[in-house]
């Protein structure tokens, strides 16, 4: 019986019924379902405003209608430049329902980078926060392509920068006056729903293509991974412009939960909202955990458990243990723009509950196993593509395969081929696989330190130095060395500036806890470490600093 | 920018990377993930035997290898005829991994029906329970197509029926001796993974085609709907041959939970296992709930909440309220073979917790809203295809659309066209939609009673009569009437046979609680109602009985 061949395509001799039984996967369907199942439940909370799912859906459709009136045709790009807000959430549904492609630009970028992205993405409409007027003006002045239609989000602050741009729509008035659109059907589920630009530490940012299918599957995978349901109250501490908020913009809606917006992450306010708003879930870079723990309010245990998904940079065990003691269930995720955000999860095994907090936290700093949506995870030799052993020691390139790997970099087939031309996405991260199958990232390929022919993981040194009671933060980079090639150089932020440890004291701690060849040869104390807006350590900035330092010595 | 068109197909000018970012969806991937994430957790429990995910995976691969050795080629059908067992679960993975199509036949069918199905499905291999030897022998004697290879599951009982079939493989020996197969890659995710025959109350059974994609999506939807995770311990009270156990055969594995097998549903044993095995989830037809409540052990509250998904027939409010009082969280699902099992769910709204148990149960008897996997639910006029109002009164045909609607009936394009040729699957069920969007089935199209031109829902009458304290079960059918056309006829099973209510008492109760034209004109008391093996009421049997009754009057 040749069932397989006869039913592979609906147009063939397969039994009729193609419209009934094939609907392209798209995360906009989560909102369609939520409005039917939970019409009166709170969908979005922003300050004193609460939108039910009915209202949220209606506003998203009206945004879609407004965009169509402004000329957005299927396949056109609508960019956003803003902090977390209900307008940003509405764009995650209204733009694709209008047939457009959502391009959420990092709101902390400078005008030149924004101009580059808008020209590259051929932005038709830009929706932006009023407080970013100056940045937008700068970007527009540098723009080499036709200027987009501008829609401004009034944040209700009195001190908006002066603005001489003549043609400008007010977001609220536009939505209020618009006619709801009829959602444009998704033609093929592999069509583009969103375009997210990488931070581009080397060269220009690259535009990562997300498909409707990938976004649907990654969102559903996140709903399961974070155990979200209709009782979920999700605090938006993670920027929505970061991989569409790791696709949580769609996942929370799939669960029928409530999005609670937060424009600026103020740690005291986060803790307060957990108490007063019944927050059950949040996501944040590890730096946010450190900020929360620094607050005096963090002495009070949480009134209920809060699931906190962290990622974007490796968290450390001490921080996780302290957060757990406070009442957070910390779930460590790993991902990148190219994987729709989360692609690995340090899945918490029920047995870990019986471990000591420290032992448990040491397991939790690992990046873990593939999420539901990722089909295959491998550690490979980048040249031979052979798997390295799962022995907790052998280093390999972390490679991924699955429906939640990007469609590619837009207008950049060479870069696409470089990272995924051989059947796997090469993440560029160097990792080991432990015997239990959990991955632990040792470094970015470019951050590994090669000393006397030995590979040294800068992250491993950082993790050990963080264990010293006087160390608050630490970053380790390679320092050129005539004899060894490279040696580790540690940049340390002490807990207290007045009572900081000596170099010798720190290095003696290191010698006790790691192989001697890994012990840093240099220590530099600093008041803080350079980080991106999303909490990623900027090691290249430390390298610049090191160069200057070495030149002046 | 024409992103959509350029990226619709991987072979076009789209950036390269097709292998990295497109993997056909298949529920076998849930086992691949579970074995990596939970290798040492219990996957399957059967009596005293516990298989870890590692062992379960290994055995499934070896079953696949054995089937290939026996000649199973991609697209070939492997039928099973057995009660819930680890072998049945292994078949749900081993058969598709060998490239085969799983056809789980209802183990309670007679030889003639089994012979029809095997001939129609062109069964290459039949895996069956030893206790069903006589039925299999009968089926083989009636078979008009080549006899399949036979694999027998030894259930460990001493009284296996005598058997003279010469060529026979023992399941355990076969798996033990086999070489693990290399899973056959899924070519297209819409290829067939399973073939499930309808019960066919009219005419021959029809073979419903499930795709890998549909099975993946419905399983994941069930994992979410039933809130399963790695702590889930799922008791198999639902037959796995019923829509692949409503796809829970795959959903529990997706969650990394534990399958606990049960060959025969003995109510006392079910309650005991909840206590001793830590059961957290189960699924069963409403009749099983009634059987559980009848046990003296049901006086003891459960030691922990158990999620019980029920469906296959409409449950009644009294039963749900009593089950809830005992500690079950009853979740009412609706579905049919054509929809991979569950397609509607009476999603429990958090606000319902504050209602009285009776008021809550009355909301829970409704079939509810579309599951995560169903894209559209509508109540339509079957001729004009126009939507009927959501007013809780207007009757319409329940129609569904989505990726979890069957690919069609195999070798039966006419029947396929009949039910899904107009862009929707017409379930044949008559329902109302309440103002909150929840569907409530009033009847099968053929079970509706037309009296004096008015449509009367037999289910509505049954629900009201169940509220009478002396009524244990009730079924209402149409009775031909010279003047009215039809009138309702109630078949009643009293709580106590010695103390049963009079006709007049029951009808007076009805007149108090329903419009007078709906009150049954006839009442027949019976010791039990005819039901199928899966708890579905057999109204056609009551109609036969009625005919005999009327003829003798």
List the helices and strands and how they pair.
The structure is a homodimer of 553-residue chains.
Chain A: H1 3-7, H2 18-21, H3 28-37, E1 42-46, E2 49-52, H4 53-69, E3 77-81, H5 86-97, E4 101-105, H6 111-121, E5 123-129, H7 133-142, E6 149-153, E7 169-170, H8 171-177, E8 192-197, E9 207-211, H9 212-225, E10 233-235, H10 243-246, H11 248-255, E11 258-260, H12 267-277, E12 281-284, H13 286-293, E13 306-310, H14 317-326, E14 328-336, E15 341-345, H15 357-364, E16 369-370, E17 374-380, E18 396-402, E19 408-409, H16 413-420, E20 425-433, E21 439-444, E22 449-451, E23 454-456, H17 458-466, E24 471-481, E25 485-494, H18 503-513, E26 522-525, H19 539-552
Parallel strand pairs in A: 1-11, 3-4, 3-5, 5-6, 6-7, 10-11, 10-12, 12-13, 13-14, 25-26
Antiparallel strand pairs in A: 1-2, 8-9, 9-19, 14-15, 15-16, 17-18, 18-20, 20-21, 22-23, 24-25
Helix pairs in contact in A: 3-11, 4-5, 4-8, 6-7, 9-11, 13-14, 14-15
What does this structure look like?
Two copies of one chain form a homodimer. Chain A is built from 19 helices and 26 strands. Chain A is α/β, with parallel strands linked by helices and 553 residues long. In chain A, the strands form six sheets. A nine-stranded mixed beta sheet of chain A has the order 2-1-11-10-12-13-14-15-16, with helices on both faces. In chain A, helix 14 (317-326) packs across helix 15. The longest helix of chain A has 17 residues, at 53-69. Mean pLDDT of chain A is 91; it is low at 1-16. At the A-B interface, helix 1, helix 2, helix 3, helix 9 and strand 16 of A face helix 1, helix 2, helix 3, helix 9 and strand 16 of B.
């Amino acid at each position: 019986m040749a069932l397989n061949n006869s039913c592979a395509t609906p147009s063939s001799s397969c039994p009729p019924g193609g419209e009934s039984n094939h609907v392209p996967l798209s995360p906009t369907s989560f909102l369609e379902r939520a409005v039917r199942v939970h019409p009166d439940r709170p969908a979005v909370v922003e300050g004193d405003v609460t939108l039910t799912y009915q209202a949220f859906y209606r506003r998203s459709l009206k945004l879609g209608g407004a965009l169509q009136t402004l000329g957005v045709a299927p396949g056109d790009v609508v960019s956003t430049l803003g902090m977390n807000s209900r307008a940003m959430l509405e764009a995650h549904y209204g733009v694709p329902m209008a047939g457009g492609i959502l391009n959420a630009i990092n709101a902390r970028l400078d005008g030149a980078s924004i101009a580059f992205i808008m020209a590259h993405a051929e932005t038709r409409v830009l929706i932006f926060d009023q407080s970013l007027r100056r940045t937008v003006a700068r970007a527009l002045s540098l723009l080499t392509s036709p200027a987009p239609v501008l829609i401004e989000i009034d944040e209700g602050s009195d001190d908006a920068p002066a603005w001489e741009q003549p043609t400008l729509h007010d977001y609220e008035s536009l939505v209020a006056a618009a006619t709801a659109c009829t959602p444009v059907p998704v033609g093929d589920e592999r069509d583009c729903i969103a375009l997210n630009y990488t931070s581009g530490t080397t060269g220009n940012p690259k535009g990562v293509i997300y498909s409707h299918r990938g976004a649907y599957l990654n969102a559903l995978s996140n709903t399961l991974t974070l155990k979200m349901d209709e009782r979920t109250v999700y605090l938006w501490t993670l920027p929505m412009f970061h991989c569409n908020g790791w696709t949580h913009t769609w996942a929370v809606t799939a669960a029928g939960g409530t999005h609670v917006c937060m424009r600026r992450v103020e740690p005291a306010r986060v803790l307060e909202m957990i108490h007063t708003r019944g927050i059950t879930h949040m996501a944040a870079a590890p730096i946010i955990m450190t900020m929360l723990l620094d607050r005096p309010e963090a002495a009070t245990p949480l009134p209920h458990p809060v699931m906190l998904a962290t990622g974007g940079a490796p968290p450390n065990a001490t921080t996780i243990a302290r957060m757990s003691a406070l009442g957070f269930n910390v779930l460590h995720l790993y991902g990148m723009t190219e994987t729709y955000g989360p692609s690995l999860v340090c899945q918490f095994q029920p047995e870990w509950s019986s471990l000591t907090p420290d032992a448990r936290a040491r397991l939790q700093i690992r990046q873990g196993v593939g999420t539901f949506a990722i089909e295959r995870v491998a550690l490979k030799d980048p040249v031979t593509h052979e798997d390295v052993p799962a022995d907790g020691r052998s280093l390999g390139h972390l490679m991924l395969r699955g429906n939640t790997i990007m469609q590619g970099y837009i207008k950049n087939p060479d870069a696409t081929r470089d990272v995924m031309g051989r059947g796997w996405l090469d993440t560029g991260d160097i990792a080991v696989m432990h015997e239990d199958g959990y991955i632990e990232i040792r470094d970015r390929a470019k951050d590994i330190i090669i000393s006397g022919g030995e590979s040294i993981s800068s992250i491993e040194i950082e993790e050990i130095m963080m264990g010293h009671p006087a160390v608050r933060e630490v970053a380790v980079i390679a320092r050129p060395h005539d004899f060894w090639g490279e040696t580790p150089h540690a940049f340390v932020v002490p807990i207290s500036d007045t009572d900081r440890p000596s170099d010798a004291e720190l290095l003696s701690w290191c010698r006790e806890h790691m192989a001697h060849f890994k012990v840093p040869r240099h220590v530099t104390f600093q008041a803080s470490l350079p980080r991106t807006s999303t909490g990623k350590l900027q090691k290249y900035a430390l390298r610049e600093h090191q160069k200057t330092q070495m030149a002046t010595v």
